[in-house]
């Protein structure tokens, strides 16, 4: 067995496939928030194609979708714009949201550590 033989038969995105539960989660999440935009993440060696939904405040969720065209149909049905992450990148508001959440988690952890 060669050094890289175990990688030869590996197909991109051989993990879990998209399910109706994924679509339901995305639909419900978008319905409960405003200013939602969709960001298409391409298939990788580890995951299938994913759709990232980002709200106006940077809150986000990600789920697998069947294909890029399925993501397009989904976002058109919901009336939200769809962007390709590979072309436009992630929006700053998402990074800002992540930074705020990190600060809040650290504060909560410090408060929990200081309790007797």
From TrEMBL:
Superkingdom field: Bacteria
Region annotation (Disordered) ranges: 1-23
Descriptive protein name: Oxidoreductase
Species this chain originates from: Saccharopolyspora karakumensis
């Amino acid at each position: 067995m060669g050094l890289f033989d175990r990688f030869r038969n590996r197909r991109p995105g051989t993990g879990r496939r998209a399910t109706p539960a994924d679509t339901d989660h995305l639909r419900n999440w978008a319905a409960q928030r405003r200013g939602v935009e969709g960001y298409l993440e391409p298939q990788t060696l580890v995951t299938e194609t994913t759709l990232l939904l980002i709200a106006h405040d940077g809150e986000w969720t990600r789920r697998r979708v069947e294909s890029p065209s399925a993501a397009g149909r989904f976002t058109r049905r919901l009336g939200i714009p769809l962007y390709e992450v590979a072309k436009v990148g992630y929006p700053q508001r998402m990074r800002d949201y992540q930074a705020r959440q990190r600060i809040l988690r650290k504060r909560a952890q410090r408060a929990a550590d200081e309790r007797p």
